[in-house]
């Protein structure tokens, strides 16, 4: 079971690829939603208002079966810009990412082959300039117990080096933990078998 994914946590520096006087500025942004992608595109259209094309591709979703993507040629010949950009997202195996390549036309037509190479190269340069990190795919659970059971719950958490993301420690205690996907079954069983302790996924609340 694959329980890791790669992404970036901050925007890449601007990169520039030139071909026969046309300029291709490449950018990579971390995103989680299509709305975030739209916001970055709007900002780039404002800052590059004299450009001819703002071509892009994005992908969201941590697990492969949850991936959503879109590629846009923005007026360039069909599949000459958006898909070459998306191809680099696939090649670098990254997700939750938007790549935009802004083109200033230099007066010389590059042809479909030239465009494919230019957009692919600018996207590749943006990714090479990015800090790509590996993350685990986690599921969040809530552990419910009464205060006297605190010690044995904390022992399980410490022994398994679990990530506590929130807690409410009163008479009626709740601790929220993030569990790596491949460890879910064993961790769930440990708490489920602990006397007077209840564990459930957030979707079961």
Shape label: elongated
Contiguous runs where pLDDT drops below 50 for at least 5 residues:
none
The rounded Rg comes to 23 Å
CATH homologous superfamily (4th level) name of the largest domain = Impact, N-terminal domain
- Domain count, please report it: 2
Mean pLDDT: 94
- Report strand %: 35-45%
Element order: H for helix, E for strand:
EEEHEEHEHEEHEEHE
Q: How does this model look, in words?
A:
The chain folds into two domains: 4-135, Impact, N-terminal domain (Ribosomal Protein S5, domain 2, 2-Layer Sandwich), CATH 3.30.230; 137-204, Alpha-Beta Plaits (2-Layer Sandwich). The chain is an alpha+beta fold and 205 residues long. Helix 2 (82-91) runs parallel beside helix 3. The two termini are 26 Å apart. The protein has helices spanning 34-47, 82-91, 111-128, 150-159, 184-192; strands spanning 4-8, 15-19, 22-30, 53-60, 68-72, 97-104, 132-136, 138-146, 163-168, 172-180, 197-201. The radius of gyration is 23 Å and the shape is elongated. The model has no long low-confidence stretch (mean pLDDT 94). A five-stranded antiparallel beta sheet has the order 2-3-6-4-5, with helices on both faces. Strands 9-10-8-11 form a four-stranded antiparallel beta sheet, with helices on one face. It is built from five helices and eleven strands; from the N terminus they run E-E-E-H-E-E-H-E-H-E-E-H-E-E-H-E.
């Amino acid at each position: 079971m694959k329980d890791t994914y790669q992404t970036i946590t901050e925007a890449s520096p601007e990169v520039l690829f030139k071909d026969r006087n046309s300029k291709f500025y490449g950018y990579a942004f971390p995103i989680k939603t299509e709305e975030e992608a739209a916001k970055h595109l709007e900002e780039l259209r404002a800052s590059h208002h004299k450009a001819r094309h703002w071509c892009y591709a994005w992908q969201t979703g941590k697990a492969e079966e949850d991936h959503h993507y879109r590629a846009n040629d923005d007026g360039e010949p069909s599949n000459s810009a958006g898909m070459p950009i998306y191809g680099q997202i696939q090649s670098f195996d990254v997700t939750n990412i938007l790549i935009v390549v802004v083109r200033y036309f230099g007066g010389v037509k590059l042809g479909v082959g030239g465009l494919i190479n230019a957009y692919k190269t600018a996207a590749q340069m943006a990714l090479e300039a990015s800090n790509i990190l590996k993350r685990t795919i986690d599921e969040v659970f809530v552990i419910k117990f009464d205060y006297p059971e605190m010690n044995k719950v904390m022992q399980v958490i410490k022994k398994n080096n679990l990530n506590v993301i929130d807690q409410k420690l009163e008479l009626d205690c709740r601790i929220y933990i993030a569990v790596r996907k491949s460890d879910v079954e064993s961790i769930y069983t440990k708490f489920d078998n602990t006397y007077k302790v209840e564990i459930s996924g957030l979707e079961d609340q």
